[in-house]
């Protein structure tokens, strides 16, 4: 069944989950997401946004862009799925990246071309699979493949960048002000996404997130347990020579 988000639901997603209703006029950094699948257009876009990251190479730019793109694609879609039981269509031919000129920090938003959403009727598991397919197989997997072709960045880095934000959204952000019933649904969805969902929903042979969603460990650099990364995102190569590694970086030598 197709419905619309309510005004209250839209307000939440606009305020906290990177959704926007209006295009940014005369922005040099907004584009139809489908253009990311055109190697020439995608390369041009990565070169254009590189200064926002103070990136020294197209490889580093691709990794840092992937972090932002995964968040804007997943955040509102996951919130709507797990809190509203509504499916936002974020397949790649239905979204625009909207970004302010010279914004600091560079935090783009997502705009839907068709804002009609799907609503749960009977089988939530089947419905959820279709929502997840739209997020991953019909969007992120296609963009990650394009970035890999253009920059030679390993897809393992791009999927771990994705997994980090899946973990953050479901372990922290989506739980804010949630009822007991919503918390149970959030936990169920999270477990399914990272442990049980088949690879076909991600456009891959197997679930690409499971490997990056293991237990947290205690390290000296953090007061709280963290998941150690298995791949490096290249953040340390940005800005100046004193930039430190992320505390979870695999390049850090540990006892």
UniProtKB/TrEMBL annotation:
Ranges for domain Aerobactin siderophore biosynthesis IucA/IucC-like C-terminal: 63-180
Superkingdom, taxonomy of origin: Bacteria
Residue ranges of every copy of the Ferric siderophore reductase C-terminal domain listed in the record: 229-251
Any Pfam family matching the protein: FhuF_C
The protein's name in its UniProt record: IucA/IucC family C-terminal-domain containing protein
Organism: Lysinibacillus irui
